[in-house]
Design goal:
single chain; 5-stranded parallel β-sheet; 12 strands; elongated
Length: about 300
């Protein structure tokens, strides 16, 4: 994904210089020329990186940094101080305030670009890690919520349906109580492997809660998703149930909705809602959402 760099510096020629240096890396450079404008731009646009001059009138870089790190909306944005003053105490102060790096002016273009890229790589790795479920290695609920709109938009563009499947691992609390957390997590991992193996590369499989998964199935409506669920249930019965032992019967329940009856904001809610409806309680179910004037179909 392209990166946006916010440059806060009161020197207009310096902005032109930075843009020229970073142009080969295809970054978008947003320029502001004082601290107050920088604070507003950072909160509004949430850039990938902030380059902040220390020596500015009114609000200096240290005060801007302090306010950025005190604001929950901007505290996680990586920040690099830029200064013509290389006094070590200033460097230490900046890093202790939360800056990622400290670059002294004047700097060599290659070194400047390398340090910018290094900071952005670290930021990308941290951001990706925050979106991954640590037990299964699948994307988590935050990733699902960030991308469901994109999947729906692409489906509309191509004139195709998009299905959402929400899976509930039946009796998950009883599984933990009877066999322990470690055993339950092994079951979760095994179920995740089955779900991922039955979906295509262009589909999205996420773990959205300890006992729940959500999938976006491209170019498929509710009927196509129902066929996919049938294969998953067969794999669970054939592979997972046989490997559990302990006399434990393991099943999953599935809720299905698609873009014919829901939009990006309600797609997952419809799939999850039909699954959790009290009138359709029980285990080992497949519940297909219908238009509001119809009843959901369960099996």
């Amino acid at each position: 994904m392209p990166h946006t760099v916010l440059l806060i510096d009161d020197s207009m020629p310096f902005h032109k210089l930075v843009k020229a240096y970073l142009e080969p890396d295809h970054m978008t450079i947003e320029s502001v020329y004082d601290g107050e404008a920088g604070l507003a731009a950072a909160a509004k646009d949430r850039p990938s990186l902030i380059l902040l001059d220390i020596d500015m009138p009114r609000l200096d870089g240290f005060e801007v940094c302090r306010r950025l790190k005190a604001n929950p909306a901007t505290e996680s944005i990586p920040l690099i101080f830029l200064t013509a003053n290389s006094i070590s105490s200033d460097t230490i102060s900046g890093l202790e305030m939360g800056a990622s790096d400290y670059i002294s002016k004047p700097f060599k273009p290659q070194q400047f670009r390398a340090r910018i890229r290094a900071t952005l790589r670290t930021r990308d790795h941290l951001e990706a890690a925050a979106l991954i479920d640590p037990v299964t290695g699948l994307w988590n609920r935050a990733y699902f919520e960030q991308h469901v709109g994109q999947y729906v938009s692409l489906a509309k563009r191509w004139g195709a349906s998009l299905a959402c499947i929400v899976v509930e691992l039946d009796n998950y609390s009883a599984l933990i109580a009877g066999h322990g957390q470690a055993f339950a997590e092994e079951i979760v991992k095994a179920a995740a492997r089955i779900f991922a193996s039955q979906c295509r590369a262009e589909d999205l499989v996420c773990r959205i809660a300890p006992s729940k998964f959500a999938m976006l199935v491209t170019a498929a409506g509710r009927r196509g998703a129902d066929h996919l669920v049938a294969r998953m249930r067969g794999e669970i019965e054939r592979k997972l149930q046989m490997s559990i032992g302990h006399g434990t019967k393991f099943t999953c329940s599935f809720g299905i909705a698609d873009t014919e009856i829901a939009d990006a904001a309600t797609l997952a809610d419809r799939a999850e809602g039909v699954l959790s409806h009290p009138a359709r309680s029980g285990s080992n179910r497949v519940v297909i959402a219908r238009a509001s004037r119809e009843k959901a179909m369960a099996c």
